[in-house]
Amino acid sequence: MSNDSLSSVKRALEVLRALGQGPMRVQAMAHAIGREKTQVSRTLKVLAEEGFVVRDPETMEYRLGWQFFALAAAAEENPLRHEAPRVLRALVQQLGESAHLTTLAGNAAVTVLSERPVRTLQVHERVGQTSPLNCTSSGRALLLGLPDDEVVALFAAADATGEPLPGSERAPRTVPALLERLHEEHRAGYVVSIEEHEPGMTAVAAPVRDFRGAPVAAVNISAPTMRLPPEAHPPVIEAVLSACKRLSETLGYANH
């Protein structure tokens, strides 16, 4: 490997380490790692193309992207690597419905792990599949507790078109409506989505938080509405919250 290539790799690692401390603009990043702004800008562009960083269209700040989390989750030493499969399998055994782990990927939720029961009729959600943030239980769970301005920034491009956000009439399809729903769900600590994304389907989700209390993933249970009517929600909500508590504790979160 040439010296130039080694320098590029080192610069990329410096950028990722710096973003581990929080979102930054290009100029602040260049100052933080002692590099030229043009070099840092090129590095961020490459990392963004590969999904390792994402840029907030409103603040122009960069933060770690979903690909970084996906690699971290695959690492043997990552607690989620050990705990998430067991926790999801336990949920499936307890509830008899499909369980999924999702994380934020730009302005969508991406499924990184799924466990399913043996059923004739079930939810076919694949690893790597993306879904909207506003009208899915896992999508909104990933937003619980985020500042309003961060949520607004995620939907800035879609909001600028003037078109409603995706989902059925049951879903919050404008940013103000979404913020109002998120405030309610944040107080509750969980999200229930009844036929907001897919007709005939209901899902329950809650966030997995890291040691800072930031949502880094979501656990959700999804099933046909006929198997998950409102009167059946309480035990499912309790089970999902318990699963998220266990996973959050593996990441150092203790404020329950």
Write a concise synopsis of the structure shown.
By secondary structure, this protein is α+β, with helices and mostly antiparallel strands.
CATH topology of the largest domain: Beta-Lactamase
Which strand order spans the largest sheet, edge to edge or round the barrel?
Answer: 5-4-3-8-7-6
SSE-based structural type:
alpha+beta
Sheet with most strands: 6 strands, antiparallel
Radius of gyration: 19 Å
- Total individual domains: 2
Tally of helical runs: 10
Q: Output the helix-strand order.
A: HHHEEHHEEEHHHHEEEH
Q: Helix coverage percent of residues?
A: 40-55%
Beta-strand proportion: 15-25%
Low-confidence parts, pLDDT < 50 over ≥5 residues? none
Please outline the helices and strands.
Blueprint: H1 3-19, H2 26-33, H3 37-49, E1 53-55, E2 62-64, H4 66-74, H5 79-95, E3 98-105, E4 108-115, E5 130-132, H6 137-141, H7 148-154, H8 156-160, H9 175-188, E6 191-194, E7 201-209, E8 215-224, H10 233-250
Antiparallel strand pairs: 1-2, 3-4, 3-8, 4-5, 6-7, 7-8
Helix pairs in contact: 1-3, 2-3, 5-10
Describe it for me?
By secondary structure, the protein is an alpha+beta fold. The protein has two domains: 3-64, Arc Repressor Mutant, subunit A, CATH 1.10.10; 68-250, 2-Layer Sandwich (Beta-Lactamase), CATH 3.30.450.40. It is 44% helix and 19% strand. It contains ten helices and eight strands. It has helices at residues 3-19, 26-33, 37-49, 66-74, 79-95, 137-141, 148-154, 156-160, 175-188, 233-250, and strands at residues 53-55, 62-64, 98-105, 108-115, 130-132, 191-194, 201-209, 215-224. The strands form two sheets. It has a six-stranded antiparallel sheet with strand order 5-4-3-8-7-6. Strands 1-2 form a two-stranded antiparallel sheet. Strand 3 (98-105) and strand 4 (108-115) form a beta hairpin. Helix 1 (3-19) packs across helix 3 and helix 5 packs antiparallel against helix 10. The longest helix is centred in the C-terminal third of the chain and has 18 residues, at 233-250. The chain is globular and about 60 Å long. The relative contact order is 0.11.
